[in-house]
Amino acid sequence: MKKTILRASLAAFAIAGYAGIATAEPVDEKLTIDGEREMTVKTKAPEGHPFDEVLSGWLFRTKETRALEADSFANPGMLRVEEGEALWNKVEGTAGKSCSTCHGDAAESMKGVGAAYPKWDKDNNRPINIELQVNKCRTEQMGAEAYPFDKGGQKPLTAYVKHQSIGMPVAADLTAGEMQKWWDKGKEVYYTRTGQLNLSCASCHEQNAGKYIRADHLSQGQVNGFPTYRLKQADLVSLHNRFRGCIRDTRAEYPKAFSDELMALEVYVTWRGTGLSVETPGVRQ
Q1: C-alpha span between 231 and 202 (Å, rounded)
Q2: 186 touches 268 (CB < 8 A)
Q3: Res. 22 pLDDT band, cuts 50 70 90
Q4: What is the DSSP string of 216-262?
């Protein structure tokens, strides 16, 4: 009984912060990249969604942070996208190939790709995201080693591929293969409380969206900007890194990147952002 009370108290403290819970509504603004490409940062939620509208995390950020993403020249994540472009054209592996050998100009061949992942991978009978697809191509087509999680060119190349879909609406296909079963599993993960703080994803991003956790403004936790540049880390942060970081912050043991648990969670949270524009690389605090 005492442990239960302690966990509940810690959870309340974590959400409220030192000065108590303060509400902070998202801004009512439009995001236009470089004054030319208008992004969808607010849209009607798909059927069965807990919110009436889905809102990009951009709407919850400070004026200064929002301005960084609106200007490609100022967006620090674009340096890593440029690094990804170099990797796209780099020949590696025993087959003497690069990504461009098979796929040509990424602006054409990768347009829309980032908006449709994760997808069903019938070869492995599970969902696959951009990072895993890159590794599949490297090992099966290029004769190159797979990138270790968050190392080598994984983040910049993933950001480069997803950037080709910037402005396009997120639309994962849940009808392919067993994607719906993985969505169900991901939903269960999303609402399951874990750790010493006894928190779930929903504790912050649904029940307390629009409030402050200490000095940070809680958004709906949308993932349409990943890999995203976090000013706190001064670097791109991958989606599974963010998943693991959130789970760690509940003081729970976190799963391996690309584990079944986290892949299911990626399927589910991607669906939660259906219709929002791909923003990669987003800029967040």
Answers
A1: 24
A2: yes
A3: low
A4: EE------TT-SEEETTTTEEE-HHHHHHHHHHHTT-PPPPTT-HHH
Residue located via tokens 């391996």: 256
Catalytic site positions: 246
Number of other CB atoms surrounding residue 89 within 10 Å: 11
- What span, in angstroms and rounded, lies between the C-alpha atoms of 14 and 237? 23
Kindly tell me if the per-residue pLDDT of 19 is higher than 70.
no
Domain around 10:
2-75+175-284
Q: How far apart are CA 260 and CA 95, in angstroms?
A: 31
Coil, strand, or helix at residue 185?
A: helix
Q: Please state the rounded mean pLDDT for residues 179-208.
A: 97
pLDDT, tens only, 93-119: 999 999 999 999 999 999 999 999 999
User: What is the pTM (predicted TM-score) of this model?
Assistant: 0.91
Q: Which of 137, 163, 189 is the last residue of a domain?
A: 163
Closest to 273 measured CA to CA, from 27, 47, 43, 106:
43
| Residue pLDDT, tens place only, 41-75 | 999 999 999 999 999 999 999 999 999 999 999 99
Cβ burial of 56 (10 Å; 0-12, 13-18, 19+) is: buried
Distance CA 120, CA 94 (A): 28
Query: Can you give the CATH number for the domain in which 242 is found?
Result: 1.10.760.10
What is the pLDDT at residue 212? 87
Q: Which pLDDT does position 216 carry in this prediction?
A: 78
- In a shared domain, residues 26 and 123: no
